[in-house]
Amino acid sequence: MTAAEWNLIIGGDICRVTPQGTLEHPGLPVIWGVAVCVAVTIVTAWGLYIPSGSNSITANRKSGFTVSAIPFFGGFLGSLWIKPWVLLSFKTATSVLFLMVIWTGLAGTPLPSRNLATVLTWNLWWSGIIISVLFVGSAWCAVCPWDSLGNLMVRLRVWRRSLPHFSLNFRVPKNFRNVWPALVLLVGLTWLELGVGITSSPYATSMLALGILLLAIIFLGVFERKAFCRHACPVGRTIGFYAQLAPVELRAKDMEICTSCTTLECYHGNANVDPCPTHLVMGRLKQNTFCTSCGNCARSCPHENVSWRLRSPGKETLEGARPHWDEAWFMLVLLTLTGFHGITMLEFWENRIRQLARYLGDSGQLIWSFSIGMGVAIAIPVALYLCVVALTRWSTGSSFSFRMIFTRLSFAALPLAFTYHLAHNLSHLLRESVGSGSVFVNPLGVDALPLSVNERHLQMLEMTVTPFALAAIQAVMLVLGFIFSVLVVRRRGMQLVPEGSRTLMTLSPMFGFAILMTAFHLWLLMQPMNMRM
Q1: Strand (E) or helix (H) holding 25
Q2: Could you tell me which residues come within 8 angstroms of residue 130 by beta carbon, excluding any fewer than 6 positions away?
Q3: What is the pLDDT of residues 149-158, one digit of tens each?
Q4: Could you tell me the maximum CA-CA distance found in the chain, to the nearest angstrom?
Q5: Which residues contact 190 (CB under 8 A, 6 or more apart)?
Q6: Which of 70, 123, 140, 151 is most exposed, with minimal Cβ within 10 Å?
Q7: Which backbone phi and psi does 310 adopt, to 5 degrees?
Q8: Contact between 381 and 393 (Cβ < 8 Å)
Q9: Do β-strands 248-252 and 306-310 pair in parallel, antiparallel, or remain unpaired?
Q10: pLDDT, tens digit, for every residue of 70-123?
Q11: d(CA 197, CA 203)
Q12: Burial (0-12, 13-18, 19+ Cβ within 10 Å), 297
């Protein structure tokens, strides 16, 4: 076997031109699919037959260490979020890029591959933001331009405490103090992205960005603190849930100091620092879900007791995060939407939607056909999970309600969603971002011509990593997601099993759910995938 043939087996093709003249990403080579299947089989056997050493959820157990303890440069890293100029610099940079997206989308070329608005938003930001969670948790929320510009317009500042300001400061109505608004907007954003096709329209991309900015301004103007960030932002809530798996957290250095604190500056703020935007108290903080990493608590704490900490990845999902009904549904639907993104980029999906459109008499953009297909694609995994929860309740003989089992085991969906999302976005980022620097030179795309198939093919040849490395990373991501899902089922599931029948085999329905979703994600990655634009 020649070196070229071996590279093809383990790395796959660079790209594939369809009969319609479009370019597709190659699928994950079969050898990597086999490797993932073998790994899943081994992990499943371990998960079912090797007893767990501990079945208790130890949310209060202290682990990890502060970033400031890292030799040589730990002190510098630990103080970054406390220094005003650091966050202000990042906020300014992201706000400038956001305004450039608005400008270029409205005034530039309609060619999506030549316009800064679409390339920066969909190829770089939307792909890269999920990957960033793996390294910096919810740090994006701290520099979000929607929040920065909204604060500037409503509260007249992006730094220091903003009193007085134009906000009405109403409390969020009790029925909306949850993540249902964010879930509805996430489904709507997915529909706009994949159904209406705003990724291929610079103008529509700019209008969407302006629409979300307007929504953030309205929330800032009506409600106290940052209700949009906590309850309604689809991007922020997605990042927040994924941040449960991140290896970093903003936490107290010494819990005894927090326990004896009576002033709670971390919650109320002080004369110069705004209160926590999402109503969190540092002494009770056990999960990243609603932390926006803004650093207000670190700057306002009179004891300097707040710091970034490194920890075991997935610690919250296994131990600390509390189950809530609305959050469980968000994690479950997030799992379905990540897979749905993959489905819509396959030739299989296009053919089925066109068949449905002919049956319905749908025409134009096939909006009705797409909407029905999207509804079915979301409903199938949800129905499967509902059945699995019912089977688990029966097999364990648990006295817990269906709703309690549903919420507790929903955390098993999170690593499956996150790792597939990472693998999927990594392919877009590495394959489609090559040559993106040209749009920063000519952001409006003046006199630019559409990218030809040959130009795209040459860009693919200049990937920053080899096809082998990309395939290996994607395969490892799927396996890691399955491992964490199994760990969650073992740790949280055993809390639902009565004392007299605590055997891991009673949790086999949930193991089956994790296997089926991993197999589905593996199948998606092994298919040739259309480019985003």
Answers
A1: strand 23-25
A2: 238, 239, 242, 418, 421, 422, 425
A3: 998 888 777 6
A4: 74
A5: 337, 340, 341, 374
A6: 70
A7: -95, 145
A8: no
A9: antiparallel
A10: 766 666 666 666 777 888 889 999 999 999 999 999 999 999 989 999 999 998
A11: 11
A12: buried
Q: In angstroms, rounded to a whole number, what is the distance separating the alpha carbons of residues 335 and 511? A: 16
Tokens of 475: 């395969």
Q: What is the DSSP string of 260-288?
A: H-SS-HHHH--SSSPPPTT---GGG---S
Q: What's the one-letter identity of residue 14?
A: I
Please provide residue 252's backbone torsions phi and psi, each rounded to the nearest 5 degrees: -75, 140
Count the Cβ atoms, other than its own, within 10 Å of residue 499.
5
Overall size of the chain counted in residues? 533
Q: What is the spatial distance between Cα 420 and Cα 335, in angstroms, rounded to a whole number?
A: 9
DSSP string of 492-531? HHGGGS-GGG--GGGGHHHHHHHHHHHHHHHHHHHS-EE-
For the purposes of burial, counting CB atoms within 10 Å of the CB of 271, is it exposed (0-12), middle (13-18) or buried (19 or more)? exposed
Joined tokens for residue 190: 């997915």
Secondary structure letter of residue 163 according to DSSP:
-
Nearest in space to 405 (alpha carbons), one of 419, 394, 414: 394
Distance CA 191, CA 107 (A): 25
pLDDT more than 90, % of the chain: 54
Structure tokens at 441: 């030179």
With CA atoms as reference, report the closest residue to 251 among 276, 226, 286, 275. 286
Work out the mean pLDDT of the chain and round it to a whole number: 87
- Tell me the helices (H) and strands (E) count for the chain, helix number first: 25, 6
What is the reported pTM?
A: 0.92
The token duo for 239 is 């990042």
Closest CA to 288 of 99, 137, 72, 128: 137
Beta sheet of 306-310, edge-to-edge order: 65-66, 306-310, 248-252
Of 205, 201, 207, the C-alpha closest to 365 is 201
